[in-house]
Amino acid sequence: MSGDPIHDEWYPVALASQLPATGRETRLLGEAIRVAWAGDQPEVTGADGRKLPTRLRYGHVWACPGTPARELFDIPEADQPGRRLVDVGLVRVKCSPLRAVENFLDIAHFPFVHTDILGAEPHTEVGRYDVEIRDEVDEVWATKVHFYQPQAAKSASGGITTQYMYRVPAPTVSILYKTCPPRPGEWDVITLFVQPLDEETCEVWPWMALFDDTTSMTDLIHFQQTIFLQDRSILENQLPRLLPLDPGMEIPTRADLTSIAYRRWLKRRGYTYGAQLVAA
């Protein structure tokens, strides 16, 4: 690994299908950048004119402000025949980029924030599940997660107990694998790609790889946008605004095992952008 864990990561900086010919002016880790097309490939330029390492994958443009510590993570399902790849779009959120990822990992809020969609009372208990930091790939994984949901997906016709797996392959990326109602033997893939504008503001790019031959693309996008917009008001009111990495700063419950592992993993990697290290 390179010596700068914050600048040596890959970050999403544009949705390729919506990148105008004139380019996109944005920020990354507090610095101005420009994303533009150079022929049929994207090019990302820093404020000092330096060309940043760039990738085009999962419908998005990715950039690394420093020297990539490793190649961009792999989502094999993105290349699986028959899946619909859904570019959900952009939501700007006034919160730490790490808070956005942590919220995506939180199961317990489903009945209270996504009522009658991803959860409903009295089905509020989070059952036992497994969490681990997989050293061989340096990722956080949560498995054997299950939760009752009134409408687990746009394609679902009624309430089901949904099976989940969570994966964190990079500090500002979370991937959710969940029960696929039309194909019980497969997983739907829902991701959250987070662009840190600064330590307290981010742009969130949800993206999905689904088996769903009936729902219109517009309805798929609106369904996921509805879910995340319900989260935004919660995220923008969380205190402290930065994600605490000291386990003594917030009181966790059994449902928070994935969050605890995520914070431990960030601390171990030395990733502190958008984090609070000690109590204020």
TrEMBL record:
Keywords: Dioxygenase, Oxidoreductase. Residues 93-268 form the Vanillate O-demethylase oxygenase-like C-terminal catalytic domain. Pfam families: VanA_C. It is an enzyme of class 1 (oxidoreductase). Its EC number is 1.14.13.-. GO terms for molecular function: dioxygenase activity. Signal peptide: none annotated. This is Aromatic ring-hydroxylating dioxygenase subunit alpha. It comes from Fuscovulum ytuae.
